[in-house]
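User: Predict the complex with zinc ion.
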Amino acid sequence: MIPTATGLAFFLRKQVRKNLALLAGYCTFLALMVLGYAHLFQFLMWHLERRTYSLIAGIYWTITVMTTLGFGDITFRTDAGFVFATVVTISGVVFLLMFLPFVLVSLFVAPWIEQSIRYRPNRELPAGTRGHVLVFGPDVVTRAFMRKMEGRQVPFVVVAPDKEEAFRLELEGMRVLCGTPTDGVFLENARAGAARGIVTNLNDPETVNLCLTARKLGDAPIAVIADESAHADLLRAAGATHVIPLPQILGRHLATRATTFGAAAHVLDAFGNLLIAEMPVYGTPFVGQTLGKIPLGGRTGLSAIGLLERGAFSSPGPDSPLSVHTIVLLAGTREGMSSLEALLRLEAGEDRVIILGHGRIGCAAATVLGKMNVPFTLIDRMENPHCSAHESIRGDATHLDLLRKSGIDAARGLIITTNDDNANIFLALASRRANPHVRMVARANREENVDELYAAGADFVVSSSSVGANILANVLEKKDTILLTEGVNVFRRPLPPRFSGWTLAESGVDAMSGCAVVAILREDNPEPVVGPSRETVLDTRMDLVLIGSPEQEKRFGEVFA
Ligand code: ADP
Ligand code: ZN
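Assistant: Here is the predicted structure with zinc ion placed in the model:
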């Protein structure tokens, strides 16, 4: 049997427990031997030389002799005594100095080395395997994707480039294949031709090679997280079916949440003509009012489908207060978004956004703001070698002097997007102190830091791994789901046929799943019905657009499947 990493870890844990017992036994044996010699020492000293020593002195003497330290402060003076001391020295050399290290090495070090040499990662899937998903480039995004897909019936196989990585991934509980992603023979052995999908987050040149090689074997869809949107054409030409320029997508997410200007620019995604958007309230005349008082629905036809405050989602009601930290989630048409923009009559030039970090994501955010004519200031420790379009202030943003000099106290918006989550949390806290009202959007490189960023003062946190995982899941499951923020999804589903002829209120779709129906789309009418009345009569040509948590979305699937 080929040992797997998890099997190996299990074996080692069992083996180590057994070996600890053996070691304890050996130590007891040594202790008894020392005690026995100490008694014998007392006996011989009295009978041979008429000298008395305590048991403690006996133990002390035995240990100094057995370890060959032999201080010489207590010594025998008779031949019989010398013979006894020699026997004790020799047993010390044998049992303490030779055997003990040997026991330690053979019980603990050797099994580990032996087993890691014996570990052979899988390099091949059984012939005839089909319908699996191959994941290349195990990193935070692909890991979050696999966690998201946990519990679904799709078998995932992660490809690790080397044995050490394979071992680590197997310990995490994943099914692993070890091999070179661009090697044709390996891809054949990974049954890439019969896969349900291929997902990759390797670098773009490697991905091009992988796509070309995989295309020779079959036409499984290939979803690619691309480093650069400029590479999209090349990746498609090589055979990628879905190219996801994640840094550009994240940059857009950050930029549109950091400025109030351009309601149309806050559109996150769309289901046909139905747009889903977010609008920060800070900087608009709506601050301090309630949702029922602002002229939203009447003037623009938009519907508020949710409210976000520091990452916490709440359902909207006429009495919901709008503060500087509120973000309103909106559903409606493009015309509606334009009317909102006209209604707010904001001047782009009045906004000012500071961007901390000019990597790919920071650069993409700056590009989006530039297109909206929103002035911005970039700060980075280093020059971005791939960007000639933007000037940045050079320096470490965690130096508070630099942050102050960049004008943080007067800025309207702030984007925190370094690749270091600790720096991002630190910067969120420092900036919130310097400017209590600034619209602060931060990027979390790892999902587990989202809460800390909110706690530090961010108004909105974009988790790069969740966004990436969500897009990959949509592509693979051919599902229509928009991730608004951690824990809130907007999704489109066909009307469960049994409700045809019922009114929305009678169907109880919302009560049974916990989701709210935010719009209805019809096959025969491109115009969406936004915020449908409870009396709307349903028919089978309708699709429902709902908002809810991922659990509620799942419940909807289970109840109405
Ligand atoms: P991505 O491309 O995903 O945005 P990068 O690693 O390319 O990530 O970019 C992160 C940027 O953040 C880098 O340009 C880096 O110099 C910058 N950065 C990291 N820490 C700090 C800091 N303390 N102050 C200023 N810039 C920083
Ligand atoms: Zn740039």
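The radius of gyration is 34 Å.
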